[in-house]
Fold this sequence. Notes:
cytoplasm (chains A, B), homodimer, ATP binding (chains A, B), alpha/beta, nucleotide-binding (chains A, B)
Amino acid sequence: MPDAPLPVARSVADLRAQVAAWKAAxxxxxxxxxxxxxxxxxxxxxxxxxxxxxxVVASVFVNPTQFGPNEDFDRYPRNEAGDAALLASAGCxxxxxxxxxxxxxxxxxxxxxxxxxxxxxxxxxxxGHFAGVATVVSKLLLQCGADVAVFGEKDYQQLxxxxxxxxxxDIPVRIVGGPTGRAExxxxxxxxxAYLTDAERAxxxxxxxxxxxxxxxLRAGARVADVEAEAIASLQAAGFGKxxxxxxxxxxxxxxxxxxxxTTPARILAAAFLGKTRLIDNMPV
Amino acid sequence: MPDAPLPVARSVADLRAQVAAWKAAxxxxxxxxxxxxxxxxxxxxxxxxxxxxxxVVASVFVNPTQFGPNEDFDRYPRNEAGDAALLASAGCxxxxxxxxxxxxxxxxxxxxxxxxxxxxxxxxxxxGHFAGVATVVSKLLLQCGADVAVFGEKDYQQLxxxxxxxxxxDIPVRIVGGPTGRAExxxxxxxxxAYLTDAERAxxxxxxxxxxxxxxxLRAGARVADVEAEAIASLQAAGFGKxxxxxxxxxxxxxxxxxxxxTTPARILAAAFLGKTRLIDNMPV
Lengths: 285, 285
């Protein structure tokens, strides 16, 4: 028997009515914010959310304010019917799919910004990106009122920015990070992988391979600057074009590691172009 | 019999525990954020809050981030015991008085900014002021989780900034504005009136008198620019020093009024110094 169609809320009022009904029945709720074009990585976050709450809401909203003027907002993949079917199969209870005008009505004029953790890496490469993310995530969390929200470690800097703003603004929600889903050859699952040509897709696993090799070299005591330079060289040898960054940073605040930081938990993060497609990945060190 | 001492919460956890207990008992809660040094204007907001909810929390927090480097943060009046007694007499149920480190712990790095309504008037005269206000009010509202929050019309631009950010960030609270409390001679009640010398206090009612006269002239059809200039002249004649602004603006967005705006609800707002003390006031037109 096919799954029943997934209920869809298109307004804040409808979303809140459903969550309030669950809470009135004594149930907890988790939210999984996404931009749609869902893949197994997203579905693993939905399944993780189910472990933390009785009910799961997934949002699908391609947020215009987190795309730069020359980025891929217009061509970002959209497939609501396919997304809804995948969410239902993963045990999601509600799809929240607001319109742009529901999220940003006439006169909208508020921005949430996070200094520090949002400034290096993608914050430097994509000006305004994390202000767009911080603002829309604040709104989604406050619209939903979920007890828990799940975000993927694939967007590791985003996860740390969200942890910071939730703590700083006292948003009453618990943030849970979910591990990066990967293809069998190691490539991190991403909606943007759909942009890759066959040749680019074949070259793409060089990114996680470079990060894994770098993490091993660091654990063996190699110098950070050497390891970063080697990783960049290996990406370029594999056919990557512009490398926005390959950097080792503190795992929580994403600050540069000082000379005495050998025992600080660290993360290696990278962003690089393969053809016109910008791929990101990261790993613990 | 004297009133029982007012319970005081000093941490977010204690505040939330009390509000959660009320909600579990089916009671609603209202919040009245203040910077302390309470006067009858504040107490009228507490009484108004009681009309909107079963329980009332007043917060007292002198927020450092909304004071400029040359403003009066250090000498701003503080009198918690006196404030607590006044709040209890007005029917407040809980005083929330967090420390600066409870509000802004190590690593704090998030700011809420509002464009448009926060930019003219006090936004121009006090750079950074409304970002400080928007951030701390977002935090207080999310810490408390009240159903309703009451702010005075005395700080009229602040009230409009707060209405805007609550709507934009989808903070689940209803904002209620309370009318400005006034002394018998018309001076708006303000904690900063305590700074005035006797002579300054005697001159201060010229501010509401100038605004009332201006509103009457506008209703009689006088030109906005003429009325603003006359009000400034009358303040200077009464002994005021620097006049930061006397301006007629749209009542909601505080935009300049266009030539066809005779039917737009408007507000006249002023800020001017009497000696070292900066007074503000406003009235509907």
